Q: What sequence folds into this?
């Protein structure tokens, strides 16, 4: 069984405040994009995990953790051989690890014939990470709570994304740990984005907001240089995805996105143009 585990961008990411459990209360509109890791899973006697990036072959990898969680929750004695071809940059604000975990749940649910409902898969996904439940359905969705509450939205019109991932990984925990009360907002931008999506429209980029952009730039100043390069190339806006450090902009036409990506590549960045993606597993 082969699963494409798609990356995401955050069209909005607002933080309403700090919760009693220590997490932040968020409102975010997320969109999967056409950049994906590829997960291949086959039945085996024991669990085995390999990756195209050998540094990720650890027991803490979310693919391995997801498989062990399923075994423990449902008393599964069958194993699986899991092979991950890594294409999404690690710790880049694109949700690669979370998407891999969701893909593992979907693949093993089918491979082991567990017949888990979507709500049960979402419960397990939330145990692995706040972003993981979103990737079970993908497409366009509103995330609430600490990010695990997912409400699918109507598919947005086709658009293209210019991604500018930066070489140095950025810890999500470190970025959230640098959030201060002045980063909090009311959630109105996300509410407006949801309202637009429900009418089949994309809220103008002038309104998009990411509460993690400021702390991310403070921890990784190279983000500002990448944003400036994207603007010099002709992009109207340059956003930070998630906790960064990936910078992106959204274009209506493929040709425009490819032109921007080529300009960034000329400046030495690893940039690429990918479309919005609506493939869903469940």
A:
């Amino acid at each position: 069984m082969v699963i494409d585990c798609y990356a995401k961008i955050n069209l909005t990411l607002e933080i309403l405040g700090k919760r009693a459990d220590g997490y932040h209360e968020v409102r975010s509109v997320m969109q999967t994009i056409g950049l994906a890791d590829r997960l291949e899973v086959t039945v085996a006697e024991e669990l085995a995990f390999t990756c195209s990036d050998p540094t990720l072959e650890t027991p803490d990898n979310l693919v391995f953790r997801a498989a062990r969680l399923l075994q423990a929750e449902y008393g599964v004695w069958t194993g699986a051989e899991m092979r991950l071809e890594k294409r999404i940059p690690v710790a880049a604000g694109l949700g690669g690890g979370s998407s891999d975990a969701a893909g593992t749940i979907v693949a093993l649910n089918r491979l082991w014939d567990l017949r888990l409902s979507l709500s049960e898969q979402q419960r397990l996904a939330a145990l692995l990470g706040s972003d993981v439940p979103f990737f079970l359905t993908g497409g366009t969705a509103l995330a609430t709570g600490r990010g695990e509450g997912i409400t699918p939205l109507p598919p947005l019109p086709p658009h293209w994304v210019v991604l500018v991932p930066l070489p140095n990984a950025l810890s999500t925990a470190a970025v959230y740990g640098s959030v201060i009360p002045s980063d909090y907002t009311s959630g109105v931008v996300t509410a407006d984005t949801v309202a637009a999506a429900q009418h089949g429209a994309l809220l103008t980029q002038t309104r998009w907001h990411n509460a993690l952009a400021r702390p991310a730039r403070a921890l990784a100043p190279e983000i500002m240089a990448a944003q400036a390069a994207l603007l010099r190339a002709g992009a109207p806006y340059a956003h930070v995805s998630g906790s960064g450090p990936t910078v992106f902009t959204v274009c209506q036409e493929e040709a425009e996105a490819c032109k921007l990506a080529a300009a960034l590549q000329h400046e030495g960045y690893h940039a690429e143009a990918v479309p919005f993606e609506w493939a869903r597993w469940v």
Remarks:
- The chain has nine helices and ten strands.
- The longest helix spans residues 96-111.
